[in-house]
Amino acid sequence: MYKLVKPDPSKNLINDKGLRSDGRRPDELRSIKLQVGVLDNADGSAYIEQGKNKIIAGVYGPREIHPKHLIISDRAAIRCRYRMAPFSTDERKHPAPSRREVEISKVIREALEPSVLSEYYPRTVIDIFIEALQCDGGTRCASIVAASLALADAGIPLKELVSSCSVGKVKGHVIVDLYDLEDKYGEADLPIALMPNHNLVTLIQMDGKLSKEEFDKAFNMALEGCRKIRNLQNDALKRKYKLESDTENSKDSKEEVK
Amino acid sequence: MYKLVKPDPSKNLINDKGLRSDGRRPDELRSIKLQVGVLDNADGSAYIEQGKNKIIAGVYGPREIHPKHLIISDRAAIRCRYRMAPFSTDERKHPAPSRREVEISKVIREALEPSVLSEYYPRTVIDIFIEALQCDGGTRCASIVAASLALADAGIPLKELVSSCSVGKVKGHVIVDLYDLEDKYGEADLPIALMPNHNLVTLIQMDGKLSKEEFDKAFNMALEGCRKIRNLQNDALKRKYKLESDTENSKDSKEEVK
Amino acid sequence: MYKLVKPDPSKNLINDKGLRSDGRRPDELRSIKLQVGVLDNADGSAYIEQGKNKIIAGVYGPREIHPKHLIISDRAAIRCRYRMAPFSTDERKHPAPSRREVEISKVIREALEPSVLSEYYPRTVIDIFIEALQCDGGTRCASIVAASLALADAGIPLKELVSSCSVGKVKGHVIVDLYDLEDKYGEADLPIALMPNHNLVTLIQMDGKLSKEEFDKAFNMALEGCRKIRNLQNDALKRKYKLESDTENSKDSKEEVK
Amino acid sequence: MSTTPHSSEILTLECDHIIDLASKGKRIDGRAPMDYRKIKIQTGIIEKANGSAQVDIGQTKVIVGVKIEAGTPFPDTPNEGVQTVNAEFTPLAHPTFELGPPQENSIELSRIVDRNLRESKAIDLTKLSIIPGKKVFVVFIDLNMLDHYGNLIDASTYAALSALLTSKLNKYEVKNDELVIKDDQQPLPMNDYPIPITFAKIGKTLMLDPNIQEENAMSTRLTVGIDNEDCVCAMQKGGLGGFEPSEIESAVETAIQKSKEIRKLIMEATR
Amino acid sequence: MSTTPHSSEILTLECDHIIDLASKGKRIDGRAPMDYRKIKIQTGIIEKANGSAQVDIGQTKVIVGVKIEAGTPFPDTPNEGVQTVNAEFTPLAHPTFELGPPQENSIELSRIVDRNLRESKAIDLTKLSIIPGKKVFVVFIDLNMLDHYGNLIDASTYAALSALLTSKLNKYEVKNDELVIKDDQQPLPMNDYPIPITFAKIGKTLMLDPNIQEENAMSTRLTVGIDNEDCVCAMQKGGLGGFEPSEIESAVETAIQKSKEIRKLIMEATR
Amino acid sequence: MSTTPHSSEILTLECDHIIDLASKGKRIDGRAPMDYRKIKIQTGIIEKANGSAQVDIGQTKVIVGVKIEAGTPFPDTPNEGVQTVNAEFTPLAHPTFELGPPQENSIELSRIVDRNLRESKAIDLTKLSIIPGKKVFVVFIDLNMLDHYGNLIDASTYAALSALLTSKLNKYEVKNDELVIKDDQQPLPMNDYPIPITFAKIGKTLMLDPNIQEENAMSTRLTVGIDNEDCVCAMQKGGLGGFEPSEIESAVETAIQKSKEIRKLIMEATR
Predict the structure, then answer these.
(1) CATH superfamily of A21-243
(2) Mutation choice for F interface testing from A144, A212, A227 by most F CBs within 10 A
(3) For A105-123, what is each residue's pLDDT tens digit?
(4) 3-state SS of chain E: helix, strand, coil percent to 5?
(5) Which end of chain F has less Cβ packing within 10 Å, N or C?
(6) φ, ψ for residue B12, nearest 5 deg
(7) Of F92, F142, F181, which has the smallest distance from its Cβ to C85's Cβ?
């Protein structure tokens, strides 16, 4: 590959005032846009923009499962695929699924599965499909946030929504919600997922180097991030239902007009 | 790859007298040799030589279908594979199926399927296997011609034989039945398949650039080509049946001698 | 690849005294270590060290067979996979199965299958998995020796153990049990497998060039090698059973002490 | 191997209804036979791509991203850039879309889109050579189906064309046989704006832009690609039926007219 | 994973009959145990290949094409050409041949053919170097089964050998590290003409050239390859049974004799 | 696609028993919650590898081989060696391990091992450049499961670390851009010795080093990797349940302590 050698981007990740290269404070999340019910074919769907991350999640199910040997007799099986679009990254990603995508599909499934009342639908499958259209750091967390909303939108009974957020260390500072550059040139990345009401961490992974003290600080900052994002999820869901009931109401009123 | 740089072959594709580089007139087909019943294992088979094209088609079925989820309850499923032998082309073709072969398999199936009375054999499959042993332009058309004969040879009930022929534009001239060089250096290629008695076009594809006037001229030239080739198909089939009934007769006479 | 050019290693494969480069006489086997019952999950297992060859074989079955279309109604199906660990060879072997491994899996299966009373377990499968951890010539023979012991260890009824040994020609001399260098730079390699009591050759392959006289000499040397190795197999099996019955006895005595 | 597709028997009643409507020149969603559904074009939605577009035709949604990277030319065109199209039938777009390697439908789709662009010479590949014979730009056009409600061919090609028309290419220098990328950008050089027009034959009637219910009911499909000069640049028939020759001739005529409208839409959206 | 193959139970009666005949030294098609079926050799049938041949043994039909292209040598033989054999069990050749990646039977077949040619040094690979250590000729030998009525190993090897013996190689020059192909041709340099002879063991009888019914009935198969100098150059046993050592020794003797006949046939057909 | 794994219903009774024991702080094999099974480390068992080790934890057996070969660096680290980890769930190691391409469990395993080594910078990759930007050493770490009785993550990482710590690298010279390998060897340069500690949550109890029965009964799994300086260098949660935050914090504390013991074991075994 021919690449222009660039100056070391890690230099300016935190400035003298403790601000990050995109202007955020260490504990500041990127701006997040959530939208529920964005697709018509899928039984449920949601879209998330978190900084430059753009991710769409669709859910089908509970539905019949093929092949039959995947049937679980006392609960619904859950399947999950996380896929990065070829155009989602700085260098084009080859369309074939990478080992990274395989692992992320698994940890996302395991992050969402504790929230699903899958015993209500034995012998069926619930399919979660995630398309990362643009990736800019923390996509597994953003995917969990969107996919949990998509499950709710599909009417799948949930114990509660799952929220997710990453923290990390950059130039010795613990910061929340890393974007791509911070992820790449930082010293640690710690994504977690949380069911806030159940106080249950359903995803935790770590890359990098954190002392026990740093870990504790970072971990709590991540939990706090999850709780904030959970509020945004609730709002997004309410907007959807409000919209629907408004539409319904307006239909009703129309019908009444007749 | 190391290749000798050759003079532009498109220069001489049409000479001053309007003749093509292989001596044909614009509306002249290559010489075609058709032979029905060339394989013993296959239920039906046919071989075509059209210029340097050498293609063999074999048909199995109607037979049981695996896996079961391919069963169609009210008709036979039809499966088709078009494959180019590795030695069939100027540069060796890798044995793995190319995207081109996948597409051609599909359009050949869709060209033949309208002619098959597949409702006579519900829940079965009819398999069409095509081996292009040597490729010299217009192989999808030649494949359809051979495969339709192979279907007939297998005793599959058909509405009629499907014929096929390509037309194109070279140096501004509309010509019929392009061979490899004309295909490669020409300005357009338009393969079609026709059920002449039903006046039904069952394959049409186009590559290149044709004005509406050119298109109409080319299209009609292709229909005419199909009709001519259809006569050759009829003859080939008659030869096969004559041969069989001759053999049968001679068997009969032998038996009578006893 | 960057490789140091080495002096031709074939020069010294046989010295003036007729001894081989590892000090063996032409008809001398490498030292062989056999161990039965080395794994806990597998129903049967065995380990062989033959020179630097280190191979482990595990057997599962008779057990249920998937997919169903592999069922044989009047006998057990036998499946066999021979795999070379990526670190087993001088240059790392890519983990994907090579064509060579596919062929060796087949000939090993066909070498063992005549010894198995597979009609005792119709509609089941017996799985033989072989991991070559280090390869130094003659691994298909060593694999057969270990796998036959693993079958016995699994309690699969056998007509008798299958033994196996290779012979070859190096610098014009017929020698037994070639190691890697002799295999690579020799003039012929002839692996065989034998059921000695049934006088049945169940594997024979040949690579190289042998006159009829050389072939006969080599072939008989291989048969003799098989018979020697068969004795070692018997001993290994006895050690295992002795061990087990000793353990059992000591258990019994313990219980008696109570 | 290509296999006759399944059509669910549950759909038969609806299909019969659609065929019946068609015989009266009517459609299930109220359109006239030669109407498209509403076309919505958004560009520049993927900042990390060189170009991108989402095209909705009715409920059908397709997103296309264009990435341009340095690569190796084909041996027979050593001084031209490379165009490559890949289609992904993402499983969230339709309950029947399966995972796994590309199936014949997505391969056919990507090849039709490729053919429309390639045969009309839409991208000026002759301007994409970097080091002649050694290094050229490769234009990756990745089609992502998001919601499949029929007519993926037109939606995908319109999205691909819109993405290309808004694609930017970094300027560069070649220094000592190395490619040095500069910061300022230029548009991707384009020659033509080919527009495919897709017809469904339902019963004996031809209709434009079939929705998914109409696709289930149609016997045959015909796509006619028209370039800037009103020439046919690509065609593809699909499905288990056939066309009478006169139907094809009149479809070409219609496509030439209709393509003007849609080209105008796209040119405006990508200006 | 290698798996015991199925033998249809419907075939059992026929197999019993064949085994019974074998015990009397007879065969289902009337041949004597050491007879081959009729061998027909056609060469030069694929003009675009460097060499080609179709060999029919009875109803068994195999077509082989040879393509010779410039490529990279193996690191351990930097100055030698490369020989590569690939077998395709095309699904039209037999109702049980499945599509998909090569299965163990076709891999074994291609490796036996490869071994016969390689071990007898049939192709003179030392003469196929172009730029030592960098560029050599690769000889692709592609085996296409057309109709499978038994003994694919012999038919394939005879066809491969016939194709090689009639292969032509363009002359060339190396100019500034580039390969310039000339128009005139020379034969592919050959050293040896190895002939495999395949035996089936049916009951206790050995027979040559098993047809497909005999292959269903045989317990074991043995192929012995013999080179120009009457030396054994390759062997392969297949199947679920075994041979007594004396059977193998006598098979080698028979193969040496029989190979002379067949080599003569091939040399005449390829002259 | 990732799918909920099956847990055989036959196992339910045993699982219930294990969960019941756990509630009393007991384990089915008599261990205390924070005990590992016996760890046995053997090194140097594959002479043809640059390094190798077999680690047994109880009945669990994993063998790891390290091969070091010249290769191409990644574009973004042109002057560093390459580390690559591959895990094979060989089918002899467990009745449920299937053949075929790596499934998600083996991919996850190899990525966890990779992450522990990479994030702690265990191998000093900066010392593995041969020709800067062009040629570096690639360290292939191949994990082979031999017998699966639980806690493959720890067993695999300990074996990988032991194999690396005993790996030898041939000395070499670069002459005229060619790599010339010498006969004498040096140890692979290592920076750190990361130790993962794996917890299972059974009922409400955390236990170390779950055996296979405990893995069937556990709701969740947590692996915490600790480097030489008692810092966390990698974590991975698995399974269908979750952890309370306080459980995670105390697991990290425990892992820091426990890792010292195990690092000592490994350092002694590889001295």
Answers:
(1) GHMP Kinase, N-terminal domain (3.30.230.70)
(2) A212
(3) 999 999 999 999 999 999 9
(4) 30, 35, 35
(5) C
(6) -105, 25
(7) F142
